[in-house]
Amino acid sequence: MTVVQKRLHQLRTAVKTAEAFAAKHPRSLTVAVVGALSCFAVTAFGIAPLAPDAAELPRRTVVETLPAPDIAAQLDELANQAIGLTRAEATRSSDTPDSLLRRAGAFDPAAAAFLRTDPLGRRVLQGRAGKMVHVTADASGQVQKMVVRFPAEKAEQQQSHFTRLTIERSGERFAARTEAVPFQTQVRLGSGSIRTSLFAATDDANIPDAIASQMADMFSGDIDFHRELRKGDRFSIVYEALTADGEPVTWDGGTGRLLAGEFTNNGRTYSAVWFKDATSGKGSFYGFDGQSKRRAFLASPMEFSRITSGFAMRFHPILNTWRQHNGVDYGAPTGTAVRSVGDGVVEVAGWQNGFGNVVQVRHSGDRSTVYAHLSKIDVKKGQRIEQGQRVGAVGMTGWATGPHLHFEFRVGGRHMDPRVIARASEAITLPATAKAQFQQVVASVKTQLAVAETMDGVSAAE
C-alpha cells in the first residue's frame, strides 16, 4: 500500500468515526460547536478594543494658494470668437432676397444684393418655392454662409440626387458653388384608419401624399379607392423617406419608395411588398404569396384622383345632348401629371379638334389608349414609352369646360371600360430564380408591418 493510499484510508476511517459519534451524541456535538463559536466571539471582542481611536489620530492642515484666473484675458478670448447663428427656412413664392434673409434673422444688404445679381445667387429664389435654406449669420446679422438645397437639374438625377448651392462670405465678397449630392434614405413606419378619406388618414399619420398615392397604386388591383373605401378601413406601411444632408426633403417629388403595406378593406386584408429582381433589375409590387400586383395596364392614368365622369351615357356639357361617354374623366388641377397606363409606342402627339392636345399610345394585342385635353405634351410621335411614364399634364384644351383628363381604352378600335381592362389584364410574373430572395424580403417586412400596426396615426423612423 502506497503512502497516498494509507492517507486516504486513515481519512475515511476518521470520517466514519465522526459520523458515528454525531449519530450517537447529537446534543454533545451541538454544545461543542456553540462553545467553539463563543470562543471566536470572545477573542474578537478582546481584540477589537486594541484598534486606535480615530479621534486620537494626528491631524495636519495643508494650505495651498491657487493662482487667480485672468478674467480679462478670458473675456478678450471670447471677444475674438466669431459666434454664428444658423437658421433654417423654406423659400416662398412671395420671397425677395431681403424678406428671405430677414426671416432667417440676417440683416445684410450686401448678401441681398448678391442674391439679386449673381447668376448662382439668383437661383435661390428662381423656380418653385420650397427650397431648403440654411443661413448662418454673426451677432451683427451679417451673412457668413448660406446652404440651399433643391431638386437636381438633370431629370435622370431627380430621383437619386439633389442640388446643394453653397454661398460663403470672404471679407466683403461672396463666392458660390453648386454640386449634385446623393439623397440619403431613412426607413419609416406608419399606420392609420380611414375616417373620411385616404389622404386625411395619411395626413393624420404624417405620411407624405406621394407615399399615399403609391399605396393606392399598390392595391389598385384589389381595391377601387374611388368607390370601395370604407370608414374603419385600416392600413400599415413601411416606406423610405429621402433626406438631404440629414434634413427631410420637403419639395414635390422628394419622396422615396413604398416598401411594403397591408390594407384591410371591408374586413378583408391585402398585403404587398416592393421587390426588385437582382437579375433583371426591374422592380414591382408583389403579394406575399409571390403573385404580382402589377398588371400589364394600370387602373388609372393619374395618381389617385376623383373620377368626375365614368364610362356610361352622359349629358354632353357643350353639345347639350345625351351621348355615350367612351372613356373616363379625371378632375384634377391644370398641370397634374398624366402617365401612360402601359408599355407602348406613341402614335399621336398633337392637336385633334375636340380633344385639344392629345396623346395616343399603341400597346400590344391591338390595344391603344388616349389622353386628351392636355395642357402640355411630354412625348413625341414614334417614341417608345414604359408603364407609368409621364406623357403630359392635365389641362382644358379642345372641348372642355374645366381642367380634367379624358382617358380612353380601345381594343381593336372598340371603346372598352379602362377599369375592367386593367383588372383583367395579364399579371407580371415573379421569376422562379428570385423566389428564395423574395421570401427573405417578405419575412423582413412582416416584422416591420407588425410594429407599424401598433402605431395608429403615427409615422416614425426605425
UniProtKB/TrEMBL annotation:
<dbReference type="Pfam" id="PF01551">
    <property type="entry name" value="Peptidase_M23"/>
</dbReference>
<dbReference type="InterPro" id="IPR050570">
    <property type="entry name" value="Cell_wall_metabolism_enzyme"/>
</dbReference>
<dbReference type="InterPro" id="IPR011055">
    <property type="entry name" value="Dup_hybrid_motif"/>
</dbReference>
<keyword id="KW-1133">Transmembrane helix</keyword>
<keyword id="KW-0812">Transmembrane</keyword>
<feature type="domain" description="M23ase beta-sheet core">
    <location>
        <begin position="324"/>
        <end position="418"/>
    </location>
</feature>
<keyword id="KW-0472">Membrane</keyword>
<keyword id="KW-0645">Protease</keyword>
<keyword id="KW-0378">Hydrolase</keyword>
<keyword id="KW-0862">Zinc</keyword>
<dbReference type="InterPro" id="IPR016047">
    <property type="entry name" value="M23ase_b-sheet_dom"/>
</dbReference>
<protein>
    <submittedName>
        <fullName>M23 family metallopeptidase</fullName>
    </submittedName>
</protein>
<feature type="transmembrane region" description="Helical">
    <location>
        <begin position="29"/>
        <end position="51"/>
    </location>
</feature>
<keyword id="KW-0479">Metal-binding</keyword>
<keyword id="KW-0482">Metalloprotease</keyword>
